[in-house]
Amino acid sequence: MNTFDHYLPDWEFGEDWRPVVEHLAARVTSWPSGAPEPEDFCVDFPADVQWTEGLLVWTRLGSICLGGQIDRTGLRCGTLNPHNPGDHLDCRFILLGEGRSLSDLVDALLDWVTAQAGRADIHG
Prior knowledge:
- By secondary structure, the protein is of the alpha+beta class.
- It has one domain.
- 28% of the residues lie in helices and 24% in strands.
- It has a 5-stranded antiparallel β-sheet.
- The protein is globular, with a radius of gyration of 13 Å.
- It starts with a helix and ends with a helix.
């Protein structure tokens, strides 16, 4: 069981976003080594849009917290400031549309987290 399985039974983020977390749950079970474990992820309400309009997903890599917000405009990734989570989501931006689905944005977020996990400066 991974952390996403804890969110699904008592879902409170809006039904449009359930498939996003289901896709996250399925995808993180086949991570490359060195990437965050499935139980290291957290899901919360989005930082700067209505709570029903997106999800904020993050994980810790050493002393750094990485995350992304998936909402109706697209995906923003970056390091998270625990006091203001939407503050630094400016490392990567992908617009929803142009043939992209919410699942595509999940894949882009997880690919970005995996790439960051492989960087030497994350691990010190």
